[in-house]
Amino acid sequence: MTVKKLHNVYVGAGDMAASRQFYEQVLGLTPKFADGERWVQYDAGGVNFAIGSSAEYPGGAAGAVAVFEVDDLDARQTELSAAGIRILAARDMGSHGRTVTLVDPSGNYLQLFQRRGAS
């Protein structure tokens, strides 16, 4: 088997309304497709990212960690803290860049990433 490309990454959402508010208002993603309260798909810089209701999420799945690249990690971390978003960790990866790990309203972990040298 050969993988052609990454088509989509999605996480389960226990509360679709709260998850949509988080991904759209806090992270600034714009929906490109929605199937009612079951599925919302976003274009995250040319990569598909989606949230799926419990009806769409496979039983027993352990989840995924989506990583979103940002230009100004410090500013985004300040915005997240001000919005009451739980930040779990910050990590400096040397010449690669830095990440901040946070939790969405459904308990999914995600990371914001800034390349070294980006401001």
Briefly say what this structure is.
The protein is α/β, with parallel strands linked by helices and 119 residues long.
Keywords, separated by commas or semicolons:
119 residues; alpha/beta; 2,3-Dihydroxybiphenyl 1,2-Dioxygenase, domain 1; four-stranded mixed sheet; 2 helices; 8 strands
Helix/strand structural class: alpha/beta
Succession of helices and strands: EHEEEEHEEE
Unreliable residue runs: none
**Rg, alpha carbons:** 15 Å
The overall strand count is 8
Class in CATH? Alpha Beta
Q: How many structural domains in the coordinates? A: 1
Indicate the proportion of strand residues: 35-45%
Q: Outline, from the CA principal axes?
A: globular
**Mind telling me which CATH architecture this is?**
Roll
Tally of DSSP helical segments: 2
Strand order of the largest sheet: 1-4-3-2
Give the name of the CATH superfamily: 2,3-Dihydroxybiphenyl 1,2-Dioxygenase, domain 1
Kindly identify the CATH topology.
Answer: 2,3-Dihydroxybiphenyl 1,2-Dioxygenase, domain 1
Could you estimate the helical fraction of the residues in percent?
Answer: 10-25%
Main beta sheet strand tally, sense and closure: 4 strands, mixed
Overall pLDDT, averaged? 87
For the terminal residues, how far apart are their CA atoms? 40 Å
